[in-house]
Amino acid sequence: MQELIDQVVDYLKGIWLKRRYIIMSTWLICPITWLYIAQMDNVYESEARVYADTQSLLRPLLKGLTVETNPNVQISLMIKTLLSRPNVERISRMTDLDIQAVNEQEYEKLIESLKTEIIIQKSGRENIFTISYENKDPEMAKNVVQSALTVFIENTLGENRSDTDSAGKFLDTQIKEYENRLLSDEAKLTDFKQKYSNVLPNQYGGYYNKLSISKEQLKSIELSLSEVESQLANSKSQLESIETPDDKIQSNIQDSNTIVTSYDSRITELQSLLDSLQLKYTEHHPDVKEARSRLEHIQAQRETEIQEYVSARSNGDSSQKISQNPVIQNLQIQINHLENQVASIKVRRDNYAKEVKNLETKIHILPEIEAELTALNRGYDITKKKYEELLSRKETAQLAKQADKTSSKINFRIIDPPRAPTKPTGPKRILFLLISTFLGFGVGVGLSFLFSQINPVVTSRNQVTKETGIPVFGVVSAAETLGLQRWHRQKTLIFVISNTLLLLLLTFFILYSIFPEQIKSPLRGML
């Protein structure tokens, strides 16, 4: 560790011995850089503060009715795109900066400088934004900030309307496309149903359901037919078991009053009517004569019917025989009813059997038709659902557009408008002066160290021992008469005076940077 300290001390001594290079470098670098810094043009910064209010009153009212967008995300996107090339070119045209560019290279340089020099920042969590710009001309700085603020507000508000219009156009295009597809699907479905109208599924379901139902109906109708035929056979057997003797029938035929005919009820009614008329009128009254004439006519028809029955009986036509037994009459009526019912059920059975047979013959065709119909219906339902969704979205977009026209989602309030600054904000001359001073001094120290290594000077006995390898036991000091000490003192004095002058000159330039007008006025008077 001691060796390292000794080595550092030797380096510092070498630099001190070569300090003339520090004087030369500081006088060559510092005054020139200080003068350049003092002559740098002033830069004026203009800024504006704007507040973006995203708390619209309509927003909670229209929740769920319109398309909801996040205004904060939209503002962040506008901030990122504010310094895009189209916006920067628009700012240059609004401030006439593009006129200053005489060729394409200068115009590109102007655009790039605007991109880097226009600064937009967000202040804290609130939507407060600061737009700033620096320029040599304070009015130009103000105009650029004003133009950037205008572009920022217009882009943000115009983006809402542009997005709404673009969404409306897209929805119109999609609605038209799905409407055409829906009409096409409807036409296909109609043609298919017309083509296979006789075999398509009905209210009973598909093919297999229809076949199953038809078989069940056929089975049920056959069971009903069997039941009715069984009842018919039973009724016929009961009728045959009842025996009526011929002599009894003949005696009944001789007594015509006991024979029941189709005219009996009418005769009874006419007799009742004649009795009531005889109570009111005499035998010669026209109504009594008319009723009696009609009664005699009906009785003659009854006798004719009885005679026909007797003739038919004598000829052996048992189908025309009339029984006076009410049980037999009921059985005959029941048999006639059951026979009619059997005939009707047989017709229905034949129809169901024909339908089952027809379905069974189409067992290889109908499933394919049903599958194709299902596919057509599925496609039609999907297209219809999408079409209805698009119509609903269209209504939502229209409502959102009307809401945007009534009240904007984002309202801008300018807190601090841009102003033309009266005091320059740059360049930071004091900082540049200090940096140039340290630069000149650092270059001098570097040159001194370099030349001390190129042309080394022995400054200690340890250095002699290190370089020669010979131990040094003592040191002989130079006599005052040689003038070495005086020469070293003169060099030190020159170094101090040089740095003092540089310090005074640096102080002057610092004061000039702080009070330029106060210093310029006396200088103008002296000149």
Structure characterization notes:
The chain contains 17 helices and 4 strands. By secondary structure, it is mainly alpha-helical. A 4-stranded antiparallel beta sheet has the order 2-3-1-4. Helix 7 runs antiparallel to helix 13 and helix 10 runs antiparallel to helix 11 (286-314).
TL;DR of this structure?
This protein has 527 residues and is mainly alpha-helical.
Percentage of β-strand residues: 5-15%
Helix content: over 70%
User: Main β-sheet: number of strands, strand sense, barrel status?
Assistant: 4 strands, antiparallel
Task: Identify low-pLDDT runs.
Answer: 243-256, 316-322
What is the mean pLDDT? 77
Keywords:
527 residues; mainly alpha; 4-stranded antiparallel β-sheet
Topology:
Blueprint: H1 2-17, H2 20-38, E1 44-53, H3 58-61, H4 71-82, H5 85-94, H6 104-117, E2 119-123, E3 128-135, H7 138-195, H8 207-241, H9 246-254, H10 264-280, H11 286-314, H12 326-361, H13 366-406, E4 411-416, H14 429-454, H15 461-468, H16 484-514, H17 516-526
Antiparallel strand pairs: 1-3, 1-4, 2-3
